[in-house]
Amino acid sequence: MGNLSMVKGIGPKSEILLHKLNIYTINDLVTHYPFRYDYLTRCSLLDVSDGDHIIIDGRIDSVPILLHFKGNMNRMNFRLATDSGIVGVSIFNRAFLKKNLLVGTSVIVIGKLDKSKNVITAADIRMGKLSDQGQIEPVYHLSSGLTNKNMSTYINMALLMHGKEIEDDIPDYLADKYNFSNKKTALNILHNPPSKEKLKEAMIRLKYEELFSFMFKINYLKEKNRETKDKWRKEFNDDQLQQFINKLPFKLTDDQLKAIKEITEDLKSSHRMNRLLQGDVGSGKTIVAFITMFMTYLSGYQSALMAPTEILATQHYNNLKKFLTGYPIKVALLTGSISKKEKQNIYEQLKNGQINMIIGTHALIQEEVEYQNLGLVITDEQHRFGVNQRANLRNKGEQPDILYLSATPIPRTYALTIYGDMDVSSIKTRPKGRKEIITYVKKQSEITEVLKMMEEELKKDHQIYVIAPLIEESENTDLTTVYTLRDNMNLAFGNRYKIDLIHGKMKGDAKELIMQEFVDNKINILISTTVIEVGVDVANATMMVIFDANRFGLSTLHQLRGRVGRGQDQSKCILVSEQDTKRLSIMETTDDGFAISEEDFKLRGHGDLFGTKQSGDTTFKIADIKQDYKILLQARNDSREYLLDSKYDGDILKQRLINNINDEK
Ligand code: ADP
Ligand code: MG
Description:
Rossmann fold, 6-stranded parallel beta sheet, alpha/beta, 4 domains, CATH 2.40.50.140, DNA polymerase, domain 1, globular, binds adenosine-5'-diphosphate, 7-stranded parallel beta sheet, binds magnesium ion
């Protein structure tokens, strides 16, 4: 639809201010939805109290008197005759309004009432009357330098000048079926609501459209992934697989075996695998991933395992090598921090097929990386990768099978949207012999008790994770930081234990070094931000203390807590928080990631399930999948029908939606 500069009234300065709100195009502008509406209904002077913020209309009853002060300040006073009596109005720095404020003119006054003086100190004066059903005012997110009024003016100007170019993303037959207005009308209503009823209708229309295009994309990707993989079909000898499994140091659980069976069928079938392996922290997904890599090796293909952090990639690498001892399989590790020369070497060997399996971070999907015959891609903790990144992955290698591992059990509603394009295997029960982690919620005032509990563990030569939400002290928060915590802990334990810290701003090798020292039990207490959130496995760490626990969503806490309880000893988790203890106490009563995620979803909506790291492509501008679940289901079914029914194949809209999806990659 074009650039902001094409909208009359938006100059270079305002453009910069709009950029700060991520508004770059006219389309961004007209879909900058109000985050709230203020419902303005007329107050009666008889019902309001001193200091109330009120809105009232009336006629100007005296010639405004303008007073000037030093520094270019001014104040204007006049009397207003309202339905509920006469009141004084006083407003600062609006001298320019005076010429419009003639006696007898109708105005709307918004401000604060001083009852004893019977004066409203006005924040705003507008011309006209309040309508009897009241007025609905959109309230926008702003950047400093922009007013709500500016925003509204820009949006309305854009709608006026470019409204004709706004395209509907709902097929006509569906718009007819639901009696939807076109998008332009709906946007107009959203930004200038004439009534609550109309606003509601327009919102439903826009929510539906957003969910419809999203689900169309999900359905499209699902179909596309179902494509045949021709020559990439895997074949291998089951006995060799069985031998590998028999040599494992433990017996696989029923759920693990079931997942392996499902994966085997995918690999051997003529369709590409696009499967999510979902299971709680510690449920044993990694070994299933390794077995899948082994099967791929047996079939003569390379495989890649992608982890969200270097620490995790390194850990997987070391583990995998252990499991593969005795096999002539070459495994490599590729992360951001290895030397250029070594990287070059790895690229070389990936291309000529000398490397059979590779483990790494995002580096694996960068352009330069070429494979000889990549037959499998696995991503661990896949919620860190969004739908689009997944698509990127899929295009590496000609038609690799894809397996995603996720330890974040997703509420059913949500799974439909973000995992809608995949098949799902679940590991529900953890390997036997694992003890439940005992969780306590403690207040800051109970810190002595917390320290005592910590000392008990340390005396047993067990290790402890301490989590703090921030790295450095920032001016406007008093959140605990890793540095303060380290100092305080050293003080508390009289420097008797080795305490170190790790955080996301450290260089890759520095982090790894510390992590390795922790693995080797050279560090007793490891203070960390959430960088250790995923997957790290240190069996001797039996306690986790999380400061400012209220800052985290329950699912995140559950993930964090899963770092302990990895060995034979009883593990404990202490959540330290002044606030929110009722919500946190859910963590004391359940260890079921699924129940926790449902609870999180109920309490805080979907945004939090993925922390701040969630990828942008599942955040909606207007829809809320918790509240709009019914619309979502409808949109899912409708978009599927629209996609699959060939009678719509000639539709321009259908082509456009498909092109958009392919362009995104
Ligand atoms: P996650 O699902 O969180 O990735 P992991 O795969 O890291 O869990 O498994 C956690 C630990 O349990 C690992 O040390 C792993 O070797 C071990 N493990 C996995 N499967 C079993 C099993 N069937 N029996 C016993 N231990 C197992
Ligand atoms: Mg894991």
